[in-house]
Amino acid sequence: MNDKNSKEEIISTMCSSHCGGTCLLRVHVREGVITRVETDNGEEPQLRACQRGRALRQRVYSPDRVLYPLKRVGERGEGKFERISWDEAFTRVASELKRVRDEHGPESILYLYMAGDLGVLHSIMTIHRVLSLFGGYSTWWGATSFQGGIFASYFAFGTIFCSNTRDDLLNSRLIIMWGWDPASTQTGTNTPWYLAQARERGIRIVAIDPWYSDSAASFADEWIPIKPGTDAAMLIAMAYVMIAENLHDRDFLDKYTVGFDRFKDYVLGKEDGIPKTPGWAEAITGVKASVIEKLAREYAAARPAALMAGIGPGRTAFGEQYHRAAITLAAMTGNIGKSGGDAAARAWESVVGGYPYGLGIGMAIPFAVNPVEDGSKSDGVPLGYIHPKIHYTRVADAILEGKKGGYPADYKLAFFTNCNYLNSLPNSNKVEKALQKLEFIVVEEQFMTATARYADIILPTSSFLEREDIVFGVGQAYYGYQKKAIEPRGESRPHNEIARGLAEKLGIPDYDEETEESRLKTIALIANIPHFEHFRKKGVHWIDKKKPYVAFKKQIEEPEDYPFFTPSGKIEIYSEQIEKMNNPLLPPIPKYLESWEGSNDPLARKYPIQLVTKHCKRRSNAQFDTLPWLRELVKQTIMINPADAEKRGIKNGDMVRVFNDRGQTVVPAEVTQRITPGVAVLPEGSWHKPDKNGIDRGGNANVLTRDEPSPGGSFPYNSVLVEVEKISDEE
Ligand SMILES: Nc1nc2c(c(=O)[nH]1)N[C@H]1C(S)=C(S)[C@@H](COP(=O)(O)OP(=O)(O)OC[C@H]3O[C@@H](n4cnc5c(=O)[nH]c(N)nc54)[C@H](O)[C@@H]3O)O[C@H]1N2
Ligand SMILES: Nc1nc2c(c(=O)[nH]1)N[C@H]1C(S)=C(S)[C@@H](COP(=O)(O)OP(=O)(O)OC[C@H]3O[C@@H](n4cnc5c(=O)[nH]c(N)nc54)[C@H](O)[C@@H]3O)O[C@H]1N2
Ligand SMILES: [Mo]
Hints:
By secondary structure, the chain is an alpha/beta fold.
């Protein structure tokens, strides 16, 4: 490839960013350098990459990439580093790990990770294995994305794999996009493509979202704006309409569910004296009673109908109630286990092995038990649902307070993999204090992120265009092969090699003897992929291209042989397992619980705007943020309704200060009817940029978010009260 006369090669590989899409890329390479990135031009269904995949050349060659191992030379967080060798980096990290383990115990080592991208081999499980064999580490629980959905799905169905493949949307008669914006977030390759086809075929589509999202604008026949955090009330009022008008599917409920009568008593007001009428919900949600009635009737009549319950509304103070209510409505309309229907459980699936897949992320290397968290905390639930001791929202607090604050250990060292903790987790100002307190920080990174700036040592990782791996389809059932298109840039290394190098320095002999290639061959074998070389060359292996996968089909068609995975073997509208938790904020049937930092919170007098911190089209969380091509596509702004802007003297394009007691950020205002009054939207993931006074000028939403989980573990990124104020140019 280094031959000067060499021609351009086109390498077929897969994109697998943190967006939950896995799309085909055709990477043009000349003399070892990527010249352009194209996408699938083969037969349908093509797996076409979005704007981020197409911009990967700028990501790979970004000036923000970390290309060499670095050690800190300035103050923590200042961002001054010096290049060192891999040997020096490993030696230093190993000696600090040993020191902390021997002086304070392995529980004072924190391993803090996220997804990064979705390969099965070069994942966070590599360092997990090293640290587990080394004696263990403390970690966190709670899926930032959809813990509320996990809670609800697990207790209703006994599993979290509840989605049909996206091609099945074309069999629906009505699609309800509830807080779901795949035109921006993808959530499975081809999801927007199937929605576009559904629209062309005249399938009715309704969007419920405080924001007139790109999906609402592109696909929906109707947009219903709603106050954030109130969705459970609207869903429960829809149940009221169905019960009052006898529209619910009683045969389905009798045959496949338990506990509907308890829910019905609550809905009709027999339990608490409050009938959950559309009028009751109108006062809470801001959605007119007549609109709620109409949607309830439509959803009950249009079978099959897909209630695509997105995970954004679940990232609220009592997010799990929304998910439980949505599942209950899907059961009341008999839409579970049916083609064209949907279980209304978490709508982003399969990255950890949903659909008919045989594997999950990180299963590529032998699993090691982490002695520190082994058999950690269970909620008294007999079946699973065991998790480590600290919820991710509370990690900063745990670092700051330690044992004195009631946490299990005093934390001294943090190892970050694929995680931009400072930008992504709530309450960045508290996170900054926590990072200052630690004795040692290692960050495995590709970019000089806000978190990497706090590192003592940065270990540079290669990108998925610079290594080999296997990925899953998310919206559809296939495997993808990631082929190395170029050599790792600088001295960056794939995760598996970094873990191996560190294991050697720590004196752990049995990290993994196998090569990358033999591991990937084993995975392909487990996954029933017949011809490894053919798969490697083609890039995609379809599991079933011809017909959609429908979750719970067997449970519905052959219930005697295939019970649901719950203790009762049925869909649990009432859950004894939840009842056993004995927490009044986790009722055993879905209920509407009034959110903190909602419009009725007394705090709303000081901070009257409800802030939604949704995901952004041009990024994958905080990844891709600095790429010039993508910056042209969407600007980082706070979207605010003209009525709210006028009251504050804010005009479109004015710089504004968005603030609450936790922090403040400065961004341009986008005054638009696309956002409902009383609500503003500041997308997450914009790079944190503190000025000399420590005020964020980067538009990082997490300086404002609250570091407290919902009772079921949801991350309340969309339960945030703020004020917005115009600032003068000099400020
Ligand atoms: N382009 C892009 N794609 C991504 C990502 C990204 O950052 N960028 N991130 C990936 C990841 S990690 C995840 S977890 C998923 C996230 O996927 P989602 O959670 O679906 O994405 P969001 O944009 O946060 O939220 C979806 C919609 O919910 C709305 N919403 C927020 N709060 C409420 C509420 O209380 N009620 C109602 N009804 N609607 C509400 C928002 O306005 C938004 O339009 O996306 C993945 N895909
Ligand atoms: N306010 C607010 N905050 C949110 C959310 C929200 O809705 N609102 N959503 C939350 C959600 S759903 C999520 S999942 C989290 C995400 O939180 P993070 O996962 O922390 O966000 P990313 O920006 O994806 O960060 C991954 C980091 O891993 C690095 N990295 C290192 N090695 C690799 C590698 O091999 N491959 C890749 N691709 N990256 C590597 C990347 O450079 C990147 O900096 O954020 C959450 N934060
Ligand atoms: Mo996520």
